[in-house]
Amino acid sequence: MQLIPAIDLLGDYAVRLKQGDYDRVLFRKPIEEFMARIVATHPPLIHIVDLEGARDGALRSDVVKRCALLAGDIPLQVSGGIRSLASARDALQAGASRIIVGTAVWASPEALGEFVKAFDERLVVAFDVRNGELSVRGWKATAGIGVDEALRHCVDEGVTRLHVTAIQRDGTMRGPDLALYRRVCASGLKIVAAGGVRDDDDVAALERVGCEAAVMGLGYLRRIGLDVT
Q1: Contact residues for 195 (Cβ-Cβ < 8 A; gap 6+)
Q2: Which residue in the list 50, 90, 128, 170 is annotated as catalytic?
Q3: Which of 19, 75, 88, 211 could crosslink 206 through cysteines, CB 3.0-4.6 Å?
Q4: Residue 228: inside a domain
C-alpha cells in the first residue's frame, strides 16, 4: 500500500483547495519550497495536479518539467489540462511517469480506448465522483456518466488503474468515502484513492477495502509540520 503526497499547483504556487473550489484556498507556498519539503520525505511517487491546467484546459508542460527536475529520481503522476493524446505525450516527455486523464477520456465513446492503446499502464483514468456521477473540466462539469457504467467501460477497454476522488471529501479532513472505494475496488482494477485521507488509520482502512495506494493532501502537510490555515 503506497502513501502518495499530493501537490496542487495554481500559478507559481503549491496550494490546497477545499472541495476543489478555486476560491477556497487553504494553503499556499512557492513550488520550489514545497517540493523540497515533499522530496525530503522520500515518497514512492508524487501526485501533481495542475489546477490551472485543469481549469483552463491546457497542459503547462513547462511546469511539469520544473517539478520533474525538483523531484529528482522520484516519479511523478501528473494531471491537469491533459485534453488530447498530444498533450498526454507532452506531459510524459516533460518528465511524468504516469498521466491522469479524465475530461478527455470521457469526451466520446471511443476516446477511452484510444488513450489505453496509446499509453497502456502509463495511463491512469481519473474517476472524480460527486453524487454518484463523474465530474470533468476541473470538477466544474459533469461527464453525464454514472460510476457503475464508467467502471464497465473501463474494464471493457482494458484500463489498468483508476485515480478515484470523492470530491465532497476533498480538503475536508473527514476521512475517505470507504463505500465508494469498496464499490470501485470490486471491479478488479487497481485503485488509487483520494479525498479526505487524514492519517495512517485511513490508509489502513483503504488497504482493507482493496486500494493499491492513497493520495494524501492536507493530512500530508500536517504530517510534515507545515501550517495549514
Answers
A1: 164, 165, 166, 167, 168, 169, 170, 176, 177
A2: 128
A3: 211
A4: no
